UniProtKB/TrEMBL annotation:
<protein>
    <submittedName>
        <fullName>Beta-galactosidase</fullName>
    </submittedName>
</protein>
<dbReference type="InterPro" id="IPR013783">
    <property type="entry name" value="Ig-like_fold"/>
</dbReference>
<dbReference type="InterPro" id="IPR040605">
    <property type="entry name" value="Glyco_hydro2_dom5"/>
</dbReference>
<dbReference type="InterPro" id="IPR054593">
    <property type="entry name" value="Beta-mannosidase-like_N2"/>
</dbReference>
<dbReference type="Pfam" id="PF16355">
    <property type="entry name" value="DUF4982"/>
</dbReference>
<dbReference type="Pfam" id="PF22666">
    <property type="entry name" value="Glyco_hydro_2_N2"/>
</dbReference>
<dbReference type="GO" id="GO:0004553">
    <property type="term" value="F:hydrolase activity, hydrolyzing O-glycosyl compounds"/>
</dbReference>
<feature type="domain" description="Glycoside hydrolase family 2 immunoglobulin-like beta-sandwich">
    <location>
        <begin position="209"/>
        <end position="307"/>
    </location>
</feature>
<dbReference type="InterPro" id="IPR006102">
    <property type="entry name" value="Ig-like_GH2"/>
</dbReference>
<dbReference type="InterPro" id="IPR032311">
    <property type="entry name" value="DUF4982"/>
</dbReference>
<dbReference type="InterPro" id="IPR017853">
    <property type="entry name" value="GH"/>
</dbReference>
<keyword id="KW-0326">Glycosidase</keyword>
<dbReference type="Pfam" id="PF00703">
    <property type="entry name" value="Glyco_hydro_2"/>
</dbReference>
<keyword id="KW-0378">Hydrolase</keyword>
<dbReference type="InterPro" id="IPR036156">
    <property type="entry name" value="Beta-gal/glucu_dom_sf"/>
</dbReference>
<comment type="similarity">
    <text>Belongs to the glycosyl hydrolase 2 family.</text>
</comment>
<feature type="signal peptide">
    <location>
        <begin position="1"/>
        <end position="19"/>
    </location>
</feature>
Length: 982
C-alpha cells in the first residue's frame, strides 16, 4: 500500500509516485545566503555564485548561540536565494510554499516578482506561487530577511512586542523548515492563515467515554475548487492506529461549485480507542480524501491523538483523572550551543522526552509560540503544552494588541490538531477582561471543540479566563486552575558540585545583579538541587486534595540552560535542571523523585545529592531527596542514623566524614518497611576516555540537518565515571559531518572549539550532517595521561529530485509509551476538607472582611493600622474539628507577623509566621469549635527583604499593592482557608 504523503501543516513525507496528486517535499536544500543588503538581489539575473551555500533550517548567526549574550546577537539584512526546477511527475495546478517561521521580517520574490511578506517572526506562513512559478525551466526564489531588534511592521510602522532582547533569542534568517506542496485544482487547504487565509483540516472528538474506550470522531476540511467545473464526489475518512493499521473508515458526499471554497464535515463513532496521555504519546493518522468518480483527487494525513480534558474546581482533569501540573517554563527557542533552535527532529524528541523522564507533564513555552517540530515532538513523547501567542511582559493596545491576536489565530489554526496542546496562553502578564474576551472568541472560532483552556499568566480575579497563575508565587482557586507559570529562578552551573570539590565554588559567590545580592543566581549543585525541593514543597502543600481551594501546580523556569536573559556570572541563563547540552544537574533527579505521580509521588523515589569523591577527612552535610517517610544513611555499611526531614522530601545528614568506598541511602515507609536503596561509590583515579554516540532511532541521513550527539566521559579502571574529573578533551574526526561542538565554562564558553573539558567527568558534543554527503564517519577523543577512545558510524544517503528531497530524518520517529496509558490509577486522595465560613466580623473595615475568603487573590481585608483593631473572627457553618489554617498574608514573601489564634476563645496558636511564596500553614492541636479568631499580637517585621527585580528593575510583586511599612499594627489577609484533616 502506498504511504500517503502529507500531514496537516506539512509533516514531511516520502516520495510518492502513485496517482495521489497531493505531494510534498522538503524545500530545505540548495540555498545561498549573503549577509548585508544587496541591490537587485531579487532579480533572476543576479550573480550569486560567490554566496555561501547552506541547507535549512539555518540561522545565519547560529555560531553565536551561547558564545554571545542574547542582547549581542547579530542583526541585519540577510538575503537567501534558491534556484529550483519543478519535477515533471507532480501536479502543478497548485503550488504552495510553507515557511515554518522566518526571523524576523521577510520579503519574498519569485523570478523577480514580489510575491509576499511575513513579519511576525514566529509563526508559519504560506505562499501560493501557482501563478508565478515556471512549470518548465529554472525558478529563482529570493528572500530578504531582517532580524533587527526594532523591526517595524511595514504597513503600520509598529514594532512587535515579543521581539525582545531579554527573552526571544535572535536566531536570524530562516531557522525553521520550508516545504513545497503540489496539489490539483480541487484540494484541501493548508492551515496557514497568514498570506493564504486558509484553515486546513480540523479533527476533534466529542462524547468521549474513557471507560468504554469510545468517542464520536468529527472531521472538518476546508476545500477549494479552483477548476472551471463543479467538483462532486465523496469525502472519505480513514483512521489508522499507531502501527499504521486501518481501523475505521467513513464517508459523506460533497459538492463544490467552480471557484468556491467550503468546509466539508463528516462524523462517526470510533471504538477501542487508545487515549493520548502524559508519557503515552499514542497517535492516530486521520486521512481525509476527496474522491471523484472513484478516483482520489486529494488526500491529507492529519497526525493527532484523542484525550479528554476538564478544567474545574481549581484542577486539571486528563482522561477523567486529576493531574497536578508539574514541569518547566522553557524558552521557546529551546536552543543548543552553536546551532540555536535548528536541531534535527530526533534531537527535539530527545530533549522533550527527558523532560518527561524527569516526571514533568507540562512544558510552558515562554513568550512566543514554539515551532512545529517541538509541538509535534511533544505529541510523540507525551508532554502537555501551554502554548502562547506572543508577548513580552505586559498587556498592550492598538496595533501591538492586534498583532498578538493575529498571532494567536495563526497558532491555533496551525496547532489545533496536536493533542499535547492543552492550554492556549494569551499573555505573559495579565490582560484586561476585554482582551481576554477577544482571545476566547478567537479560540471559539477556530478551536471550539479541542478541549483546551485559554487564559493568561496571572488573571487571578478574571471571570473569563479558564486558567491563571502567578510568575513566582502560589495561588489557590476553587474555580479555574491556578498554575504557577515560572517558579524558582535560581541559577547554577553544572560544573559546580559544592565548595569541597574543585573549583570549590562557595554557595552564592558571584557578582551583584542590578546592585542587589545575587547569591540565588550563583548556586552550586548541592544548593540548586535543594532549592528545587524547597520551592516545590510549597506547591505540594496546597495540591489537589487539600481542600476546596487548591493549587494546580507549577512549572519551573527553565529546563535547559538558555541563551537568554541571565543574572549570574556567565553570559547565559543557567536556571536549567539540565545544561545546554541536556546533561542533567542534580536538581533534575530531585524532580524525578517529587514529581513521579499524578498528584502524590511514588513513595519509592530516592536520590542522593552530590558525589562521593572527596579529600581524606572531609566532613560535609549529605542531602537525600526521598518520597518516603524516613531515610537512613550508610558509609561502607555503617549506619549514620536517620536524616533530619524538611520540606517533606529533603533529608539532611550533618557533617558526614568522607571514607572511600560506598555511600548508601535507604528509604522507609511509616511502618518501617524498606522502600528503596540507592548507592554511590568512590571512583578510582582517571584512567580512560570513553565515547558514546546516539542519533535518531529512525536512522541518520545526509540531509544537512540530521545530527549525532557524542558523550565523552572520564572513567576509572572499573568503568566508573570520575565525578571530579575536569580533563581537557581533544577531538579529531573525518567523514561527511560538520563539527558543532559543545559547551563548557571557559573562553567563549568553548563554542565550536575542537577541544573542551569535561565537567563532573562528562561532556557532550554535537555533529551535523552535510547535505548529500553520506558514508563513514570517524571520531577520536584523547586527554593527556588517559587512554583514548574512538567511534565510527554510517551516514545514509537521501532521496533527491531536482533539489527537492524526502526528509527521512523526520519519518518514523517512535512514540514514547513509557508511562503506560494512565487510565487505571488511584482516584484523587482527599487529605483535608475546607470548613465553610458562614459569617465574619472584623476589628476595622468590616465592609472588606469578606475579601479575605472570596477566592480572589487580588483582594484583601486590612485593618486600620492600629493594634487593638488588628483582628478578624470567622464563624463556621457548624461546629467542627479544626486542624490547620492556611493564610495568605500581604507581603507574604517579606513580612513575618506575630499572631494569636483562638478557637471559641481558646488560644490554639501563639507565634510568628514565616515568609513564603504564598501560603503559611498554621498547624494547631485538633480543636473543636465554630469561631476562629486571628489576632495580631505585635508589629510585623521585615523577615526577608524583597530585593529581586524583574527585567526593568521593578521589584517583584509581594501581595496586594499597598505600602504597609509605616503601619505598626496592620494585619492584612488576602485569603484564609480553615481545614479539618482526614
Amino acid at each position: 500500500m502506498i504511504k500517503l504523503c502529507i500531514t496537516i501543516g506539512a509533516l514531511l513525507c516520502g516520495l510518492v509516485t502513485s496517482a495521489q496528486p497531493r505531494q510534498t517535499y522538503s524545500f530545505n536544500a540548495g540555498w545561498k545566503i549573503h549577509k548585508g543588503d544587496v541591490q537587485e538581489a531579487q532579480q533572476p539575473s543576479f550573480d550569486d555564485k560567490e554566496w555561501r551555500t547552506v541547507t535549512l533550517p539555518y540561522a545565519w548567526n547560529e555560531d553565536e548561540a551561547f558564545a554571545k549574550p542574547i542582547h549581542e546577537h547579530s542583526t541585519g539584512v540577510v538575503w537567501y536565494r534558491k534556484t529550483f526546477v519543478l519535477p515533471d511527475d507532480v501536479p502543478q495546478e497548485k503550488v504552495f510554499l510553507e515557511f515554518e517561521g522566518v526571523r524576523f521580517g521577510a520579503e519574498f520574490y519569485l523570478n523577480g516578482t514580489w510575491i509576499g511578506r511575513h513579519e511576525n517572526g514566529v509563526m508559519a506562513a504560506g505562499l501560493d506561487i501557482s501563478q508565478h512559478v515556471l512549470k518548465k525551466g529554472e525558478n529563482i526564489l529570493a528572500i530578504r530577511t531582517d532580524n533587527d531588534w526594532r523591526y517595524r511592521e511595514k504597513a503600520t510602522n509598529s514594532i512587535f512586542q515579543w521581539n525582545d532582547k531579554n527573552f526571544n533569542a535572535n536566531y536570524g534568517g530562516i531557522p525553521k523548515n520550508v516545504w513545497i506542496h503540489f496539489a490539483g485544482g480541487t484540494y484541501q487547504t493548508l492551515p496557514l492563515y497568514s498570506n493564504l487565509g486558509t484553515t486546513g483540516v480540523y479533527v476533534y472528538a466529542q462524547n468521549i467515554d474513557i471507560s468504554k474506550k469510545r468517542l464520536d470522531l468529527h472531521v472538518e476540511s476546508e476545500v477549494k475548487n479552483e477548476t472551471s467545473t463543479t467538483s462532486k464526489g465523496q469525502f472519505l475518512v480513514e483512521v489508522r492506529d499507531l502501527e499504521g493499521t486501518l481501523v475505521h473508515t467513513f464517508e459523506t458526499p460533497f459538492s463544490l461549485a467552480a471557484g468556491a471554497i467550503g468546509t466539508i464535515r463528516g462524523q462517526s463513532k470510533l471504538e477501542n480507542v487508545n487515549f493520548w496521555n502524559w508519557g503515552y504519546g499514542y497517535l492516530y493518522t486521520v486521512t481525509t480524501k476527496l474522491v471523484v468518480d472513484g478516483k482520489t483527487i486529494d488526500a491529507v494525513d492529519t497526525r493527532t491523538g484523542f484525550r479528554k480534558t476538564a478544567f474545574r474546581d481549581g484542577m486539571v482533569f486528563i482522561n477523567d483523572r486529576v493531574l497536578m501540573m508539574k514541569g518547566y517554563a522553557q524558552r521557546t527557542s529551546n536552543e543548543w550551543p552553536a546551532v540555536g533552535l535548528s536541531v534535527a527532529p530526533w534531537v527535539s524528541d530527545y530533549s522533550n522526552k527527558i523532560m518527561v523522564e524527569s516526571n514533568a507533564n507540562l512544558v510552558r513555552w515562554m513568550h512566543v509560540a514554539p515551532w512545529r517540530q517541538d509541538v509535534e515532538s511533544c505529541d510523540r513523547v507525551g508532554l502537555m503544552q501551554m502554548l502562547p501567542a506572543g508577548d513580552a511582559e505586559r498587556d498592550v493596545d492598538g496595533r501591538r494588541w492586534e498583532q498578538r491576536t493575529e498571532l494567536m489565530r495563526d497558532a491555533i489554526i496551525y496547532y489545533r490538531n496536536n493533542p499535547s496542546v492543552i492550554f492556549w496562553e494569551s499573555g505573559n502578564e495579565s490582560i484586561s477582561e476585554e482582551h481576554m474576551a477577544e482571545m476566547i472568541a478567537i479560540r471559539d472560532q477556530f478551536d471550539p471543540h479541542g478541549g483546551r483552556a485559554i487564559g493568561s499568566r496571572e488573571m487571578l480575579d478574571s471571570k473569563l479566563a479558564e486558567y491563571g497563575g502567578e510568575m513566582l508565587y502560589i495561588n489557590k482557586s476553587a474555580r479555574h486552575p491556578m498554575i504557577a507559570t515560572e517558579y524558582m529562578r535560581d541559577e547554577g552551573l553544572r560544573k559546580y558540585w559544592d565548595e569541597y570539590t574543585y573549583p570549590f565554588h562557595k554557595e552564592g559567590e558571584g557578582p551583584l545583579y542590578k546592585g542587589n545580592d545575587a547569591s540565588a543566581y550563583n548556586r552550586n549543585q548541592d544548593q540548586h538541587a535543594m532549592e528545587t525541593v524547597r520551592r516545590w514543597w510549597e506547591y505540594w502543600k496546597v495540591r489537589p486534595g487539600t481542600g476546596r481551594r487548591v493549587s494546580s501546580g507549577g512549572v519551573n523556569i527553565i529546563f535547559s540552560d538558555s541563551n537568554t536573559h541571565y543574572r549570574g556570572k556567565e553570559n547565559y541563563r543557567r536556571s536549567g535542571e539540565v545544561d545546554a547540552m541536556r546533561i542533567p544537574k542534580d536538581g533534575y533527579y530531585a524532580h524525578q523523585v517529587m514529581w513521579d505521580g499524578w498528584v502524590d509521588p511514588d513513595p519509592t523515589g530516592l536520590h542522593i545529592i552530590g558525589h562521593w569523591n572527596y579529600a581524606p577527612h572531609t566532613k560535609k552535610d549529605i542531602h537525600v531527596v526521598s518520597a518516603g517517610e524516613k531515610v537512613e544513611l550508610f558509609v561502607n555499611g555503617q549506619s549514620q542514623g536517620f536524616g533530619d526531614r524538611s520540606y517533606q522530601f529533603l533529608f539532611t545528614f550533618p557533617q558526614i566524614t568522607f571514607a572511600k568506598g560506598e555511600l548508601k541511602a535507604r528509604s522507609y515507609d511509616g511502618n518501617g518497611k524498606v522502600l528503596n536503596e540507592k548507592v554511590i561509590q568512590t571512583a578510582g583515579e582517571p584512567y580512560r576516555v570513553k565515547l558514546n554516540y546516539q542519533h535518531g532511532n529512525n536512522g541518520l541521513y545526509a540531509d544537512g540537518n540530521d545530527m549525532v550527539l557524542v558523550d565523552v566521559e572520564v572513567l576509572d579502571k572499573e568503568g566508573r565515571r570520575c565525578p571530579t574529573a575536569t580533563h581537557m578533551i581533544d577531538f579529531r574526526w573525518d567523514g561527511p559531518m560538520e563539527w558543532r561542538g559543545g559547551i563548557a565554562q571557559g573562553p567563549n564558553n568553548y563554542i565550536l572549539s575542537e577541544s573542551l573539558p569535561v565537567e563532573g567527568g562528562v561532556n557532550r558534543v554535537l555533529l551535523r550532517t552535510r547535505y548529500g554527503k553520506s558514508g563513514k564517519m570517524n571520531i577520536k577523543a584523547q586527554a593527556n595521561g588517559l587512554l583514548p577512545d574512538s567511534l565510527s558510524w554510517e551516514v545514509s544517503p537521501i532521496s533527491e529530485k531536482n533539489g527537492l528531497f524526502v526528509k527521512h530524518a523526520g519519518i518514523g520517529l517512535p512514540a514514547n509509551m513509557d508511562r503506560g496509558n494512565g487510565l487505571h490509577g488511584e482516584p484523587l486522595k482527599q487529605q483535608r476538607i475546607t470548613l465553610p465560613i458562614q459569617k465574619v466580623r472584623a476589628g476595622a473595615n468590616q465592609e472588606m472582611a469578606k475579601a479575605s475568603y472570596d477566592d480572589n487573590e487580588l483582594t484583601d481585608w486590612v485593618n486600620d493600622g492600629t493594634l487593638q483593631n488588628a483582628w478578624i473572627e470567622y464563624t463556621l457553618d457548624k461546629k467542627s474539628d479544626i486542624d490547620e489554617i492556611d493564610l495568605k498574608l500581604n507581603n507574604f514573601r517579606s513580612r513575618s507577623y506575630p499572631l494569636q489564634v483562638f478557637v471559641d476563645d481558646k488560644l490554639v496558636f501563639d507565634g510568628k509566621t514565616k515568609t513564603t511564596l504564598g501560603y503559611y500553614t498554621l498547624e494547631i492541636p485538633r480543636t473543636q469549635g465554630r469561631r476562629v479568631k486571628i489576632q495580631l499580637k505585635g508589629s510585623s517585621v521585615i523577615a526577608a527583604e524583597n530585593q529581586h527585580a524583574e527585567i526593568g528593575g521593578k521589584k517583584l510583586d509581594d501581595g496586594v499593592a499597598r505600602d504597609d511599612s509605616g503601619a505598626k499594627g496592620r494585619l492584612s489577609i488576602i485569603e484564609i482557608d480553615i481545614h479539618k484533616k482526614l
